[in-house]
Design a protein that fits this description.
Blueprint: H1 2-28, E1 33-38, H2 45-62, E2 65-69, H3 77-80, E3 85-89, H4 98-109, E4 114-118, H5 134-139, E5 145-148, E6 153-159, E7 173-179, E8 182-184, E9 193-204, E10 215-219, E11 227-230, H6 242-256
Parallel strand pairs: 1-2, 1-3, 3-4, 4-11
Antiparallel strand pairs: 5-8, 6-7, 6-9, 9-10, 10-11
């Protein structure tokens, strides 16, 4: 009787252990996968390193998986098919080969996933001997890079669309520190949906490099893919800014939902 009882208890223990292991496996299955295209080295390395550290923490917190690549030419249609979100972490829209361009265009235009881009994604023009990628210029609102505050400045950002999911929990205005505020040959506003602007009169130190109406967070609703662009992305201090982190967290989760 005692031997049967021990066998019975052992069997129950094995079942419980198996169930617990299976439950643990299922609980850890990621909700989605994100491909992070990073630009390494140079003056933006500090931001990229801080952003990657934060993204890894966010992935654990929100149960998604990230894969980091450092070259756009690694991109192809097969690779993108594995990911619900592409995060363009300061990588510029040139040096891409035709295969990578075609795959990315299809991904965005056909809504195969979502996209979140930062800073250098609007470095549009002729750089380092490469021509401007006209499709990406249209994607960003038909703009071309014009100038920037090279010495960096802090500026007050004002939320324009308070009801958009990207702006959930974000104050109506907040200060972004130490950034290179890009200006463009024209305002992207007619071609995109603006979520936030920077008040150029609040630049500290003051700068004569201005656009007037200056969008800094926007989405292109003409594309099937959900997408969000953040002009900010120069300094590691951004990852100490709760408003910035809230916007980016919201953006990643929002673009992953479609």
């Amino acid at each position: 009787m005692k031997r049967k009882t021990l066998k019975h208890l052992f069997f129950i223990g094995m079942v419980i252990a198996l169930f617990a292991t299976s439950s643990n496996v299922f609980a850890k299955a990621p909700k989605f996968k994100a491909l992070v295209l990073t630009e390494r080295g140079g003056q933006h390395e500090g931001f990229v390193v801080a952003a990657l550290d934060w993204l890894h923490q966010l992935a654990v917190e929100k149960n998604f998986e990230i894969t980091v690549i450092n070259h756009a030419n690694d991109i192809n249609e097969h690779l993108l098919s594995n990911y619900k979100v592409v995060i363009q972490l300061n990588y510029p829209p040139y040096t891409w080969d035709e295969k990578a361009k075609a795959a990315f265009i299809k991904y965005i235009e056909e809504g195969r996933g979502g996209w979140v881009g930062f800073h250098h994604a609007t470095l549009l023009g002729e750089f380092d001997g490469y021509p401007m990628w006209n499709w990406f210029s249209d994607f960003m609102g038909g703009i071309r890079f014009d100038n920037y505050i090279a010495a960096t400045a802090s500026g007050t950002v004002n939320v324009e669309d308070k009801n958009h999911p990207v702006m959930k929990g974000v104050p109506v205005s907040f200060v972004i520190p130490d950034d290179e505020w890009y200006t463009f040959n024209k305002n992207p506003r007619p071609n995109v949906h603006v979520l936030a602007t920077v008040d150029e009169s609040t630049y500290n130190p003051a700068s004569t490099i201005k656009m007037g109406d200056h969008p800094v967070v926007w989405i292109n609703e003409k594309m099937k893919a959900r997408n969000v662009y953040f002009l900010m992305g120069h300094h590691a201090n951004l990852l100490k800014n709760e408003s910035f982190k809230t916007m980016v967290r919201n953006a990643i989760l929002w673009v992953s939902e479609k």
